[in-house]
Amino acid sequence: MTNKTDPTGDVRLTGISKTYGAFTAVHPLDLTVPQGSFFALLGASGCGKTTTLRMIAGLEEPSAGTVSLGGQDVTALPPYKRPVNTVFQSYALFPHLDIFENVAFGLRRRGIKSVKKQVGEMLDLVQLGEQARKKPHQLSGGQQQRVAVARALINHPKVLLLDEPLGALDLKLRRQMQLELKRIQTEVGITFIHVTHDQEEAMTMADTVAVMNAGRVEQLGSPADLYENPRTTFVANFLGTSNFIEAEVDSKSGEEIVLKAGGGKLVLPEARCSAPAATGGKVLVGVRPEKISLTHADDAGEIPDGRNRITGRIADSSFIGVSTQYVVDSPVCSDFEVYAQNIDRDPRLVPGAEVVLHWNPAHTFGLDADQDADAGVEEAA
Amino acid sequence: MSTLTEAPPPLAPQAPEPKAPKRRGRWTPYWLLLPGILWLLVFFALPMIYQASTSVQTGSLEEGYKVTWHFATYWDALSAYWPQFVRSVLYAGTATILCLLLGYPLAYLIAFRAGRWRNLIMILVIAPFFTSFLIRTLAWKTILADGGPLVGALDTLHVLDVTSWLGWTAGDRVLATPLAVVCGLTYNFLPFMILPLYTSLERIDGRLHEAAGDLYARPWTTFRKVTFPLSMPGVVSGTLLTFIPATGDYVNADLLGSTDTRMVGNVIQTQFLRVLDYPTAAALSFILMAAILLMVTLYIRRSGTEDLV
Amino acid sequence: MPFVNWLKRNLVVIAGLLTLAYLLLPNVIVTVFSFNKPKGRFNYEWQQFSLDAWKDPCGVSDLCGSLSVSLQIAFWATLGATLLGTLIAFALVRYRFRARGAVNSLIFLPMAMPEVVMAASLLTLFLNMGAQLGFWTILIAHIMFCLSFVVTAVKARVMSMDPKLEEAARDLYAGPFQTFVRVTLPIAAPGIAAGAMLAFALSFDDFIITNFNAGSTVTFPMFVWGSAQRGTPVQINVIGTVMFIVAVLFVLASMAVGNRRNRQKA
After folding, report:
1. Are residues C126 and C31 in the same domain?
2. How far apart are CA C266 and CA A138, in angstroms?
3. Do C174 and A80 touch (CB under 8 A)?
């Protein structure tokens, strides 16, 4: 698509892989991170995202493949010769040095003598000008995190690598730091590559997200694209919640695929089906819980035509303020999740009630039926 | 930002070129180890071999020694000095048990009850360690002196009658008896018991005591079922650090004991430095080493604590 | 029965304090008897108060000479053992290599070996090599038995050190040498200092191994040993008292440094 910035600043991984003995942490992987973007590697622990990051930093040697920064092959360079800096998971601030010296560390190692002004400015950027002479353990978690960012950013790296930088913070501080990091990234315009297991964090901050699973990139795209058009069940389950119905392709008409599931028919736009859909073949039909409307069976006649529908019985409901979450037992799927906004609550919608679930066919997505419908459910929890 | 590119979808894994991974500094650990390990090999391991060889040599000082595989030296040494061996194990074992009994309350006190006195008590435990142990051992000669206040009190309380009957003391004397030697051994190696005990007690989460109390355990039960089992690593390394050096010690037996309390260390020292009967001394030393290694191995196996270092 | 209850609750405290008294009693005796004026050659019975020994601590021939020998040996042994031991500790914690188990055993064995065994076998080696016993053989022996203790102390510290700190240094343009000097060494320093302190104390106070391998050289512990046979001068009590005070002050000082660090942490 479009790429208006200088492509020479891109991070390009070519066929990069990492094996430890018989275990493959990262399968051969090609990835290009455009300059100036905020890129997230998202996945559960052990999926290879941190290993990938460490290979870019030079802290891990790839078993095969190359890493290039702005067109220069840096695969053979040790970390201290790469124009890349890292914000470590536990910050790794030097305990024997004060904040000022921590931030000045990289500059001093490169032989820069007058560091005072630069360090001062950088500490102001992360709002820690007052704390310069304190030791790391005297600061709070959030402050330490900002020192770690300042210590890396002051070197004006081509790429800033962030390894679960917010993992140690509590929820409220984490939200605050997400916005803060986003602000800093916009301000300095450096490429950020962010490793996280928190899908909300990845979606909030990054403009491109790569979802990794078992050493491979499952899907890559903008957060909205990943959420609306997951290409695997892992992505569909890891990012938010999805309902799956196994269906058989009945016919194709124009840009729509008509499917048989249970006794009824469902419509799926062909553009949103990532699986080969031959007539008679199986497809996993997915739909997000918040796209579904719930109508009591008595009012089934009022549902407009052209919507996908399924009948079922409410098994459970829980009120959580902004919405009510229902679990519906239906012949095609035993626990269908439905999130209904609490605008006009129908008092008849209680456990045991017979209901019709219906949604706009445009919100349906189709996946290859050969995969495990529950992939990624555990990891996302 | 509109810099989004359609990044290429993950390509099918191309066959990775088999490239030997470069190892940075593959030889570094060996260079780091070299001087120290060489030192230990030459001045610790090699001497053991020399000693083993000496133990099967015959000859005399004047004419020199030759390896004649004369294993009878071992048998002769054992039959001549078995009482000293038995005594060493007995004294060291008693001292170890006493160290555990005396050291545990103090370690417990420092770990859980000392509060702001903790540092002070810690200093008082460590500091004697830095003072010459020979001078401190000699002080016991004063404390246990014949007719001194301590011995006088024990005599008046008829404690000495009991210990004499047991063979620990002789008449109204404590000095130059087994009791004095064990007392000195216990004293000398007590810090080696207290420090590991303290280290493992200190790691115990104080909330475990509360949890045990909450679950209907009385203080003594809490100790038996929670505290003591958790301090086992300290107990094991403490007893080893006490027992091993105590078995080979000859200073206490020499300064506080008599010819009737000689331990195997005394024999080795005399044979080596006075009698100059090197084969016998080497054989004795070898037997002592083998015996201790055997006992330690069995003990570690039994207590199930493999990582002591 | 409030008293019985109090006793029950504080039994462990009382027992602990009694042990402490047992530990400290000899030091009290040593100090008190440094002010004694004994009648015969031995300083085991209290006679009368005197400052003679304190006024003239070197008044006994060879005493201060032996003290100086001990200090020199302890200094060099500490230096040697700390250097070699630190290198081994780093190799053990930071690298995977073959023969790791063998190296670990070789480190552990000297600590699990009665001193008299090491002393006797080392003497056999020296006799076989025809080495001249004296300062150098003592130094060699001391470095040997202090080494393992230094390795253990440094290893504990380096193991608890976050390897990410060194990665961070490398990430921030510090080469291997800079990383070691600027990050690794300062952070490992307390462990190295503890190892060195232990080595000094062990070497300075060692008697058994020294006694076997000293030849005609007399260290301070050997002087004390000899005096136990020939007659104990009051001066050794003075030296003992001074050592105790210096040790307490030293430990106090190092604790004060530690406390300051802790307070900064809070």
Report:
1. no
2. 7
3. yes
**Most distant CA pair in chain A, distance:** 80
Q: Does B20 touch chain A (CB under 8 A)?
A: no
Parent domain of C55: 1-59+234-266
Give me chain A's average pLDDT, please. Answer: 89
- Write the CB contacts of B87 (distance below 8 Å, at least 6 apart in sequence): B261, B262, B263, B264
CATH number of the domain residue C142 falls in: 1.10.3720.10
CB atoms inside a 10 Å sphere around CB C253: 10
- Same structural domain, A229 and A312: no
* One domain for residues C25 and C156: no
pLDDT given for residue A278 in this prediction: 80
pLDDT at A108: 92
Query: Minimal Cα–Cα distance from A108 to chain B, Å?
Result: 25
H or E element: which one contains A324?
strand A323-330
CB C65: neighbour CB atoms within 10 A? 13
Domain count, chain A: 2
Contact between A80 and C264 using a beta-carbon 8 Å cutoff: no
Give CA–CA dist B88/B74, Å, rounded.
Answer: 18
Residues from A in contact with B at Cβ < 8 Å: 1-5, 15, 17, 27-38, 61, 63-65, 76, 78, 207-208, 210, 216-220, 222
Domain boundary among A210, A233, A256: A233
Report residue B27 as tokens. 């030889």
Q: Which of C178, C183, C265 sits opposite A94 (nearest CB)?
A: C183
φ/ψ of residue B293, rounded to 5: -60, -40
Q: Show residues of chain C in contact with A95, CB under 8 Å.
A: 165, 187
Closest partner residue to B4 among A35, A207, A218, by Cβ?
Answer: A207
Apex B295 CA angle, B289 and B300, nearest 5: 125
Q: Are C141 and C46 members of one domain? A: no
My answer on whether A168 and A247 are in the same domain is: no
pLDDT tens-digit profile of B81-107?
999 999 999 999 999 999 999 999 999
Residue A185 belongs to domain spanning: 7-233
Tokens of C149: 């203790």
Q: What is the pLDDT of residue C262?
A: 57
Q: Are residues C225 and C188 in the same domain?
A: yes
Q: How far apart are CA B73 and CA B50, in angstroms?
A: 16
The residue-averaged pLDDT of A228-244 equals 91
Name every residue whose Cβ is closer than 8 Å to that of residue C137 and which is 6 or more positions away in sequence: C122, C126, C131, C213, C214, C215
Q: Which one of C16, C201, C220 has the shortest CB-CB distance to B106? A: C16
Contact partners of C by the rule of 3+ C-beta pairs under 8 A? A, B
Tokens 């307490």 correspond to what residue?
C248
Contacts of B8 in chain A (CB under 8 A): 30-32
Asked if residues A289 and A303 have their Cβ atoms less than 8 Å apart, the reply is no
DSSP track, A215-245: TEEEEEE-HHHHHHS-SSHHHHHHSS--EEE
The pTM of the full predicted model, rounded to 2 decimals, is: 0.80
Q: Given A27, A64, A208, which is nearest B19 (Cβ)?
A: A64
- DSSP-assigned letters across all residues of A42-90: E--TTSSHHHHHHHHHTSS--SEEEEEETTEE-TTS-GGGSSEEEEBTT
CA distances to A323, A335, A353, A374 from A326, in Å: 10, 9, 11, 19
Residues A82 and A192 both lie in one domain: yes
Q: What is the pLDDT of residues A264-310, one digit of tens each?
A: 889 999 888 888 878 888 899 999 999 999 999 999 888 888 899 89
- Give the CA dihedral A10, A15, A20, A23, nearest 10 degrees: 120
pLDDT score of B49: 92
Query: Touching check for B16 and chain A: CB below 8 Å?
Result: yes
- Cβ distance of B40 and C147 shorter than 8 Å: yes
Residues of chain C positioned with their CB less than 8 A from the CB of A85: 171-172
CATH at A100: 3.40.50.300
